[in-house]
Amino acid sequence: MLLSWLIVSEVIKNLAEATAIVFGGGWAFYKFILLREKHSKTELKLELEILGIQKDSIIVELVAICHNKGSVREYIDTFTFELLLLSKNDNISLGDKEILNQLVFKKHINEQRWVPKKWEYTFFDPGIELRYSHVTYLPLDTTYILLQTRFFVKEKKTHFNSAQKVFAIPKSI
Questions:
Q1: Extents of the domains making up the chain
Q2: Cβ neighbours for 29, distance < 8 A, ≥ 6 positions apart
Q3: Distance (Å, rounded) from C-alpha 11 to C-alpha 5?
Q4: Is the pTM here over 0.85, yes or no?
Q5: Which of 41, 49, 50, 172 is buried most, with the most CB atoms less than 10 Å from its CB?
């Protein structure tokens, strides 16, 4: 009788272990494969702050807001932006397929870094929102600007995140 109870308890123990392994594997598959928990989930937002006028220029602050909504730290390098603009007297034209037939802006700032090159890299911790800014000027006759930004994931130079936004410059500043 005692031997049969030992066998039953051993079978129950083995079933419990097998069930735990199956549920644990299922949970890991769900979290890390389906939900991609091992990857960062950085959201990029762009803002423009018009600070004022100085002589024949509009002083502005360009802002990139990075919010890592994932569960892991994201290391990045080559965090850059470009600033393009339209002026009051510019002709309006659409671009080619390379820019998806969108409105053509002219370059004002080409490939500028948000963080100093000597930093080599920066990172976004999970749940933290970071704000990067760059103060520059626009010609007084600027009507619209296009701010484009992107960064590369440090471990994989081919993976990047990008954002762009158009801002109207008010006629009365």
A1: 1-38, 42-168
A2: none
A3: 10
A4: no
A5: 41
